[in-house]
Amino acid sequence: PALFMENARKGSIVSRANSIGSTSASSVPNTDDEDSDYHQEPYKESYKDRRRRAHTQAEQKRRDAIKKGYDDLQAIVPTCEQQDFSIGCQKLSKAIVLQKTIDYIQFLHKEKKKQEEEVSTLRKDVMALKIMKVNYEQIVKAHQDNPNEGKDQVSDEVKFNVFQGIMDSLFQSFNSSISVTSFQELSACVFSWIEEHCKPQTLRDIVIGVLHQLTSQLY
C-alpha cells in the first residue's frame, strides 16, 4: 500500500505539471500565426511632405522661368553676342547679361530721341518749303497776269534773289521757334512767331539787309 500511495502521488505531481505547462503554453501568443495574418498598411504621405514636395516643384519652375528669361535676353540683345576676349566662349553671367541689356536699352532711348528730333526738324523744313512754294506760285501767277510790268526796272532773277534772301532770313527764326508736334502747337507757335518776327520794322530791316547784300554782290 505504501508503494501504491507513492506512485499515485508522483503521478498526481506529473499530471499537475503537465496541466500547468499546457495552461502556460496556451497563454503565450501564437506569433507565427499572427505574423502570417499581419498585412502592413501602405505608406501615407504626410501633409508636411506634400508641402515640401510642392515647394520644391514651385522653386524649380521659378528657376526655370528665370533661366529662360536670361536666355531670351541674351538672344535678343545684340551686345550679348559680342563677348569680350577675356571671357572667350564661356557663358555670360547673369550680371553681365543684365548690364548689357541696360546699356542696350539706354542706347535705344538715345537713338529714339535723336530720331524724334530729326523728324521734328524735317517737319519744320517741310512746313517752310510749303510756305515758300505758295509764295513762289503767287509770284509766278502775278508775273503771268502782268508779264510786262516792271520788266525794264528789275529782272526776275533779282526779284527772286531778294525774295529768297528775305525768306531765308525769316526761316532761321521760324525753324528755331516753331514746333510741328501737333496742330495746336503749330498754330500757337505761328501766331507768336508772326507777332515777334514779322513786325513791319523787323521786315523792313530784313529787306534792307538783303538789298545791301545783293547790291554788294552785283556791284
TrEMBL record:
Key words of the record: Activator, Coiled coil, Cytoplasm, DNA-binding, Nucleus, Phosphoprotein, Repressor, Transcription, Transcription regulation
CDD domains membership: bHLHzip_Mlx (cd19687)
PANTHER family: BASIC HELIX-LOOP-HELIX ZIP TRANSCRIPTION FACTOR (PTHR15741), MAX-LIKE PROTEIN X (PTHR15741:SF25)
Listed name of the protein: Max-like protein X
Chain residue ranges for the region called Disordered: 15-65
Organism: Gavia stellata (Red-throated diver)
Statement: the UniProt record of this protein carries the keyword rRNA processing: no
Positions in coiled-coil regions: 105-132
Stretches with biased composition (Basic and acidic residues): 37-48, 56-65
Main location: cytoplasm
InterPro entries named among the record's database cross-references: bHLH_dom (IPR011598), HLH_DNA-bd_sf (IPR036638), Max-like/E-box_TFs (IPR052207)
